[in-house]
Design brief:
The structure holds two protein chains of two kinds. Chain A is mostly beta strands. Chain A contains one helix and eight strands, in the order αββββββββ. The longest helix of chain A has 8 residues. Chain A starts with 17 loop residues before the first helix and ends with a strand. Chain B has two domains: 138 residues, Thiolase/Chalcone synthase (Peroxisomal Thiolase, Chain A, domain 1), CATH 3.40.47; 228 residues, Peroxisomal Thiolase, Chain A, domain 1, CATH 3.40.47. In chain B, 34% of the residues lie in helices and 18% in strands. Chain B has 14 helices and eleven strands. Classes of the chains: A mainly beta, B alpha/beta. Chains A and B meet through β2, β4, β5 and β6 of A and α4, α5 and β5 of B. β4 of chain A pairs antiparallel with β5 of chain B, so a sheet runs across the interface.
Chain lengths: 139, 402
């Protein structure tokens, strides 16, 4: 049985997903690009969700995008009490300029300043010896 | 397949919030309890399902690789066919379609379908929260939780924010749905929260994850539900109140727009519902009672649109104009829904729209009975995807006449 978690949720890094976390540690945002149809997609998949091609290549994407939607958490709703220190947590769906969509935490502004369509840029915060996670701030 | 099968019995156990000192029950106990209620209503015995079908919904608590067979062992039933659904809140509705297909094919004549869960008492990675430690952890999880996505509240909140950006919506319209379901819960002895609240109380309820308020959120409960479906011919020998499956539609992993970035204000119901209406040969005005999947008012309003009861983006107006009460012109969630009735885990709440639709169509809903209810629409809705539409949407059209 799993123990009661402490801190924040930490990803389980696998061979499939390691390139993302390692690149983030280097301050880069990388995602999978289909070598057949060119689709860029996120989160990591075993094949292209457009054409089913298994040849996916990790490529760097521009760390810029717009807020597609957002929520502001005023209470911890999942199993990780450590989010409490960060409340209110501003949580967004970001549509990146290069195409893919991702979830991301927004910092560096007040909740009442978030707008759909707002321009944001990624920055990276260490979460382990070999991994970091992208977060976003206005930019 | 219109009218080829009918539901002849339903069961819903009392629910529990597992308060201190309360007797708690296991999933197996709830399954037996719910099945017993359905069997009693149908005047059948569990032995009637030897050589027939048994359907079991996946629950948080079910982790063996052969859960449905383990349930058969526990209950002492020797079915020919086991159906196991794992479509979250769409499981119950999807299993009804699977059962209908097995009956249509002549493989079995009847199927007992059951589901139960005890999210408040299974070993959980945080007490009181509905995530079991053995839960299958898909790759997607690693790209949600660590990024700050705090479960369904966050995900539905982001749907709502986007909806408010694209269309007109005031909190009062979602409040009307929440207030109405609570009123219906006050008329249903089995609902977990029965004290009515006002619009002012709704608007004053704490914002948990903007724009989602406390009174927008479904409360978890322990409990179990079951139904029995059989061929129309057998149904007529079992009961004088068979409830026929007139139509169904289903889609999983629906995208409205590009796969990589679809419009999240839509659901797969815009595909599933028209299929169901067409098969049933009924129109929107024929629906006497609507039992949506209602874990959040926002998803209820979107279902009204995606079913075609009103146009896309006009759900708020529709809600404002219609009377949603059981005695109104567009009754919804007449059992109090999941919002006030309680959700027996993320997978089992999907039995409630079926059980309530059948109860209404049998004319057995007591104080909340929709007068002359003859045709009902009921939803199954299972799971949110990663910043896209949703996992499974199932529409059922049920009727008291074939």
């Amino acid at each position: 049985m799993a123990s009661v978690p402490e801190g924040k949720p930490i990803p389980e890094i696998t061979e499939l997903t390691r390139p993302f976390w390692s690149a983030a540690k280097q301050g880069k945002l990388v995602m999978q690009k289909c070598q057949r149809c060119g689709t860029l997609d996120f989160f990591p998949k075993p094949w292209c969700i457009e054409c089913g091609h298994r040849g996916l290549e990790w490529v760097e994407v521009r760390p810029h995008g717009t807020v597609y939607s957002y929520t502001v958490a005023y209470t911890v709703m999942m199993n990780y009490p450590a989010w409490k220190d960060d409340l209110p947590v501003m949580q967004c769906i970001i549509d990146l300029d290069d195409g893919p969509r991702m979830y991301g935490q927004l910092t560096g502004c007040r909740p009442e300043q978030i707008r759909i369509g707002m321009r944001v840029e990624a920055y990276f915060e260490d979460i382990g010896k070999d991994s970091a996670i992208p977060k976003f701030r206005p930019g | 397949m219109r009218g080829e099968v009918a539901v002849v019995g339903v069961g819903r156990t009392p629910y529990s919030r597992a308060k201190q000192g309360e007797r708690t029950y296991t999933v197996d106990e709830y399954l037996a309890w719910a099945a017993d209620l359905a069997l009693t209503q149908a005047g059948m015995s569990k032995n009637d399902f030897d050589g027939q079908g048994l359907g079991v919904a996946h629950a948080e608590a079910s982790h063996t690789v052969n859960w449905s067979a383990a349930v058969a062992e526990t209950l002492g039933i020797s079915p020919k066919v086991l159906l196991r659904g794992d479509q979250g809140g769409a499981t119950a509705a999807a299993l009804l379609i699977r059962a209908a297909a097995m009956i249509h094919a002549g493989i079995v004549d009847r199927v007992l379908v059951m589901g139960a869960d005890t999210p408040l008492t299974i070993p959980s990675i945080a007490p009181g929260l509905p995530l079991s430690p053995e839960r299958t952890r898909g790759v997607f999880w690693d790209f949600q939780g660590p990024f700050g996505v705090m479960g369904a509240n966050s995900q539905f909140a982001m749907v709502q924010t986007r909806y408010m950006h694209q269309y007109r919506l005031q909190p009062e319209q979602l409040g009307k749905i929440a207030v109405t379901t609570r009123y219906h819960a006050s008329l249903h002895p089995g609902a977990i929260y029965r004290m009515p609240f006002t619009m002012e109380q709704y608007l004053a309820s704490q914002v948990l994850s903007y724009p989602v308020r406390l009174f927008d959120c479904v409360p978890m409960v322990n409990g179990g539900l079951a139904y029995i479906v059989t061929s129309a011919d057998s149904a007529r020998t079992i009961t004088d109140k068979p409830v026929y499956l007139l139509g169904f539609g289903e889609v999983s992993n629906y995208y409205h727009g590009p796969r990589t970035r679809p419009d999240i204000t839509f659901t797969g119901f815009e595909q599933a519902a028209p299929e169901a209406f067409k098969m049933a040969g009924v129109g929107h005005r024929d629906i006497d009672v609507f039992e949506p999947y209602d874990d959040y008012p926002m998803v209820v309003l979107i279902q009204m649109e995606d079913y075609g009861f009103c146009r896309k983006g006009e759900g708020a107006e529709f809600v404002a104009e219609r009377n949603l009460r059981f005695d109104g012109d567009f009754p919804i969630s007449t059992d109090g829904g999941q919002l006030s009735g309680g959700q027996p885990g993320g997978a089992i709440g999907g039995f409630m729209p079926i059980v309530e639709a059948v109860t209404q169509l049998r004319g057995e809903a007591g104080d909340r009975q929709v007068k002359g209810a003859a045709v009902a629409a009921a939803s199954g809705f299972g799971g949110m995807t990663y910043a896209r539409n949703n996992r499974s949407c199932v529409t059922l059209i049920l009727g008291s006449e074939a």
